[in-house]
UniProtKB/TrEMBL annotation:
Species of the source: Devosia oryzisoli
Protein name (record): Thermonuclease family protein
UniProt entry keywords in alphabetical sequence: Endonuclease, Hydrolase, Nuclease
Cross-referenced InterPro entries: SNase_OB-fold_sf (IPR035437), Staphylococal_nuclease_OB-fold (IPR016071)
Coiled coil location: none
Record-linked PANTHER family: EBNA2 BINDING PROTEIN P100, SERINE_THREONINE-PROTEIN KINASE 31
GO molecular function terms attached to this record: endonuclease activity; hydrolase activity
Keyword 4Fe-4S: no
Domain TNase-like, chain residue ranges per copy: 5-135
Amino acid sequence: MVDGGTVVQVTDGDTVVLDTGLTVRLIGTQAPKLPLGRDGFPAWPLAEEAKSALETLALNRPVRLGYGGEQIDRYDRALAHMFVAVDGKEIWAQSFMVENGLARVYSFPDNRACLDELFAGEGRARAARLGIWADAFYAIRAADRPGDLLKLAGQYELVEGRVLLAEKAGGRTYLNFGRFWKEDFTGVIEKPALRLFTQMGQDPLALEGALVRIRGWVDDRDGPRIEITHPEQIEVLSTR
């Protein structure tokens, strides 16, 4: 943990600028996105509310930064957990945003610290239908509706369903959620990700028959699919 400085600007619900000039991306979370100068990019629902909440928490307050993986991204932003000094105590910014339904868990294979706590907070916010969880834009999608998922290609989604078949082929593992793999939803685990599963003592093939929730970016390659780059993208809801 290191002293970061004072927050002088809040860019959106998961990015701030410190008085040192350092831009901090709140790793482990994804808040609703603002256009931020991108032509034709619509603001996601509750993006302004998320920014406002982070401003209320952190603007003009000193913070400490904690790192649990890769520390700098390609935009030279610090990838950190941020702890805000408020009335003699520290508030973990990521947890605050997730617990209030103003961000969801969003992880990377090289940055996976503290995810269990964030998943728990997200679950509580979702159960209470706080913030984004009361908006259809962020609804959990059904894996058995591939036509609906195809319309969401290019978007980050949470998809829930039962794995019909888990199989390994050509160095990849496929989690198939329907009988027609060229049409139905699929989770694809590439070889580098499989090594992470092995390190954690997990076998993706054991997910056959399990009810799971997968989060990630939807693409369209032989039907809708999500590439799984690390184990935390999969939440096991029931083994059978």
